[in-house]
Amino acid sequence: MIHLLLAVIYLSFISLGLPDSLLGSAWPVMHIQLGAPMSWAGIVAVIISIGTVVSSLQSDRLTRRLGAGVVTAISVGMTAAALFGFSFSTSFWMLCLWAVPYGLGAGSVDAALNNYVALHYASRHMSWLHCMWGLGAAIGPYVMGLALSGGAGWAMGYRYIGIIQIALTAILAASLPLWRVHKGASASAEAQSAPPLTLPQVFRIPGAKQIMAAFFCYCALEQTAILWASTYLNQHKGIPAETAAGYAGMFFIGITAGRALSGFLTMKLSDPQMIRLGQGIIALGILAMLLPLHEYVTLAGLVLVGLGCAPIYPCVIHSTPDHFGADKSQAVIGVQMASAYVGNCVMPPLFGLIAAHISAALLPVYLLAILAVMVLTHEALLRRTGHGV
Fold it and tell me: What does pTM read for this prediction?
């Protein structure tokens, strides 16, 4: 029964990734048909991010009251409804309206699933499950690309993913009895948790500001690449929009393969070493995107950027207790996630303005600037906490 539930959770993580890359891959066509400026994709992304913040902050209360299985099923159902809402939208304001349940559903299911797996399964499953997220995120642009190249249009691309989400909602509803396994483990973990720290107390911890800045930069880089890679390929490299939508999935191929491999590499390398390795690979990928060579070099660069991103998120989270102590790690991780959401809200829309008023060709330069700040703040964190290697 436990293994059957784990299979359901794996499917849920694939489903969690499926919608994440749809907006970026479809936007080159969507904004023209909806009569919206290119930079307005950032507005939709901000609304989704705000919804994600709100639902993530409420996930603990909801999970205690309803249980992780019910929260996950409801959240996936909300996401499915939002995807169908996107597919029937005929104006930009309708996209903004449906972005609200989109974000609320995504935040709840992400928080509930990650917490449930952390409580009830071995740590290796977390790595593989996030690989499943990458698989779903890589499939999304290809589904959208097929819809565009086949003449069905971007609306049908959203509808196809919505149908998959509805099927998963039914599977989750049928699996609810399985979610009661290890019910007592949650109570035990809660009983052993340290007293919560206030925000000012967290800020006063040595290294807290540095890890927040580094995590802000990582998530800003990842989300900017996700949202604008298709536009970059279309407008700067001259790749047709429907082809660019599929090519944007190369980033997710890199991040998925990287997360599968990083689990093995952590047996030999420390968390700081893994983060530095990832940053170096990202730099190589950005360099490949900058070079005026064949489009396949640019695609290889996208793969490398994704590959470099792969170990950073899990290793930053995993290293937090080492840097700050187990008694403070929960509070620090909460603030890290808040800084990540701020990065998601601010930095991709900012590049949208740059692309609209200057050029989408500046995407690699923008990513490189974010990467430089990430490297500096992470190295400052290591010096501050005495964990440099």
Answer: 0.69
